[in-house]
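Forwarding these from the shared drive since the link keeps breaking.
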Amino acid sequence: MNRDIATSVAKNTTIQFGQQLVTWASSFVLMLFLPRYLGPERYGRLYLAEMVAMIFIIVVAYDGRIGIAKQVSRNREEAGEILVNSLGFRVLFWFGSLTGMVAFSLIAGYPPPVVIMIAIFGLEMLWVAGRAVYAGVFLGFENTTYTAVSAIAERVFVSAFGITALLMGADEVGIAVIMAVGTLINFLICAVLLKRLVPALPRFSWPRARKLIKDGFPFLMWTIFGVVYYRIDTVMLSLMSPEKVVGWYGAAYKFYDVLVFLPSIFSIAVLPVMAKLYGKENMLLARTSQKGMNFIFLTGVPISIGCYLFSTEIIGFLFGLESYTPSILNLKLFSAGLLLLYIDMVLASAIIAVDKENKLALVAAVAVVVNVVLNYFMIPYTQTHLNNGGAGAAIATMVTEFFVLVCSLLILPKEIFAGFRKDVLIKSLLGSGAMGCFIVLLRNVFPSIQWILLALGAGVFYAGVLLLMKTFSAKEIEFIRQFTNPRNLRNVLSGRKEGDS
């Protein structure tokens, strides 16, 4: 990975990570109130409505920011045309999705509050899809700053007003309204900031829109099947288990979703870079992909182990053990499969970059069948034997991720893995194993130690072990040192080069 590519990826990753810290902080505060004030049943209803919305929005979102980012990165002069026509056909798709969403909720026989929330989130789909289009254009220009600004505004609004509403006695429907208003604010900010990159917009062209629909169809299939196999477990759980079980599962899954931030940030940052390299600099593309895998191993393994070891403390701190003790098992199962998800997300970006998204969509389609079949058997089994159907859904998710991993490795060209450093994987496993022993040892010696302090100490210990094993090359250490230099970091994030006034 040359310096320009490394700087671009590092810049966008840093911006998104900064955004994540702010949104995390606001979401974290809201999470402390939401499950406790609503309780498992009402929290389960809110979570269920969100998951149903995520399933139906996939048609409106279509190829989402990934497909749009890929097109814009290769044809920036056509960004305005891509934007207008992408927004145009999504409005048409929204009507059908909204109708289907409400009809499904009525056929499923969901309680009135759930039906109302599904309708609210159905209306919200219109501007959420528009926001995805804007984010795709921003990403195509390798600009994640604008997306970060709008996301921060949304999360701060939702957290501030959500907590206030809960303290005033708001129910789950009121929280759903606040969430919908928050995403609307996000959309409006994106619309204003877009003018800095695309000052003039052409008229809507139906022929051009049809071409975008055709080009984006593989991404739609991948998104449809991907979202379904990520979210269908909640729908099946709601039909096969009590509402409180959905709440237990939702609590663990919410934190699992939070931990996905790292591969999500990195894969999004690296996608437009890899898409530009394909067909021009394939050797550099392979090196970039391999560096991405190294990064995921070095971060994913210790996060998975840490999540497993601290699962009881995490659930107790965020949700309360009195009502959410069964969520501990769910989180342990999720943490075991977390690394698989990390790897899958980076491999997916590489597959899209080399124009094999059709095969990725096929894999996702088969994964849906695998996931549904596993859920069908595992949810009632664990509900009967553990009184926790969510554990079965978590197992189904983990097995499905392994299936996707194997298929993704078979899809990618062999040259992508030529020269891959296996020693990085080995060192990440050894370092993470040492970190796990460090955590267990200190727990036994100092049982009263605060778990957050222990987690931070374990992270420092892990980094030290990696340095002792000489995991990083001299060039990598030098780049990290220069990039994290305060002055250079300001220059990179502002787009200036060293020496500019």
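-- next protein --
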Amino acid sequence: MKQLYTVFSFEFMNYAGRKSFRFLTIGLIIIIALVLSLPRIGEAVSDAKEEAPQDRELTRILFIDGAEGAGGDLEYYNESLKYAGFTFVSEPINQSEAEKKVDAGEYDNAVIVTGPLEYIRIARNISMNDRFSYQLENAMLHRYKQLSFGAYGISDGEVDSILNASVTGTVRIIGKDQMENFFYTYILIFVLYFAIILYGQLVASSVATEKSSRAMELLITSTDPRSLMFGKVLGTSLAGFLQLALILGSAYLFYNLNASYYTDVAIIQSIFAIPLSMLLYNLLFFVFGFLLYAFLYASLASLVSRMEELSTVIMPVTFLCIIAFMIVMFSMSAGSVDNLLMVACSFIPFTSPMAMFTRIAMGDVASWQIALSVTILIGSTIGVGLLAASIYRLGVLLYGTPPKPNQIIRMLKANRAQRVMR
């Protein structure tokens, strides 16, 4: 146990103490803080520069009534579109003269109303974010309805109450709202995938580096190979978990500091509105799912003699993680997280950390299925850890071409037989 703790402490500090670790962590925290604080920063800047509403310059629009009163109502349009920053100015000129005034910059746009629901817009340039045509058409349509209803003796106030009527409904969800849970589920699954790929390969690189430099030969003379492997995996994993906790924790902190600015942003609210039960489930599947892959990465990395061989040896494990991620992503996008493939993947330890958590968050899962999936995952992680330790013990002194799976099995059987005979 003392050897395990020594290796664990060394590996943890070796990674957590790096400048790259600190710079990356602090840099991401600063970026998250800035991104989540943008509405507050924008408000402060706008407050400093904002003029009084009555002094704010409105966009000038040349208004020409070409329908002889059928669709032109200057006062109405000025009142309706003043909120959007437009003011209409009428001049008794023709289209050609209007084009010259717009081209000269006297007006930003010109509108020629040719009928109750028809108009010609003259613009020198139109930006990608231009909404004037949309706002003008809405105002014209509303005015047309007012005039049409007015022909039947209905007042403008009554028309507005009819046209602006809204439906109020209450939805009672007995099960899960997939859309509400989609965003935080997607983020957490992506974080697990990212952690396995990044930190798992970091574990593999650490093992392969020690072996290629033959430093491992010195280590195993004073340290039990099993303690060496478990200490290395657990130490690096804890450093990775700490980094993720600091980054995600800072995101949660800065969201709560600026929560009042996101009351109308459903996606942002959904990401951070994670129920405690879902957070605990995610933590459970995250820890054991990551350790399962990390043990595999460490054991396979011990079989290589050169760093150049590492990517080839660990590729099958990486593909397992990618396949699990793709299955879950496609199922989430299709809105079918309880399909037959996802149910099967919920009980396979290499896919269950992503598949079962997604089903718990967005699907309908029986309690016994959750218990069975967790039991299989924990048991498999322990079993893979012990198997990985045995492979690691054989691999540390094995040089040359990495052995094939059947060769590894024969070596493990031979080693076990020798230990029984002793």
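The chain has 17 helices and four strands. Residues 2-35+177-421 form one domain.

- D.
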